[in-house]
Amino acid sequence: FFGGSVVGVPMATPVLPGTPVVCKPGQKTSIVNQGRKKVHMILTDGTEMVDEYDVKTDELLVRKSRKKTTLGGEGRWTFEIGSEGGTNFRADTDLLAPTAGNPVVVPVDTKKYFQFRIRNLPYPASTYQLSVDEASQTIVVRTTNKKYFKKIEVPAMQRACLGLQEDNVQWEYKNNTLVIDYAKPPEILQQEAKDREERTKMKSEDRPGDECKTQ
Questions:
Q1: N or C: which end of the chain has fewer CB within 10 A?
Q2: Residue 156 CA to chain centroid, in angstroms?
């Protein structure tokens, strides 16, 4: 059962005010550890970011970031993709796995979509309503029975200063899980293609630890 909408004629991606946040020159390093390529970056706004890719499939399993605290200490990691346990959400197994507890949002990266899986939602598919709030630049999930409400940010779009479009949202509900796909605009797809090419050329050292050495 699908909802949402994707139009046949793509619209130009809105550009938001501000300067895009990118990796600082020379501030990207890489290691290979336990089957993952871990890429460490310092962004132009001072954010420290770590991406973890499957070395065989190049699938992005984890993306986490943190900023310095007001006192200059290390902040807490925020997970943009994956979870603190470091495990990716697998569609072929996790949608069928029994779950219990409050709804939890699990962000997943795919080649064409920013994906968000909200587990532990027991309401019928006809209950869910999705929209884009232009003011907060978030995907809004609500139910007609007023028992669930959530605003979901798309950090990669925010960093690129690109606005969300409601026509790019589609969703599916099954096994008590609401799966939301936001179609990546051409600007994001082009940048990710450049990043993939760069990763293939990066010198990554096989190491048992988690620290990265400069290229």
A1: N
A2: 7
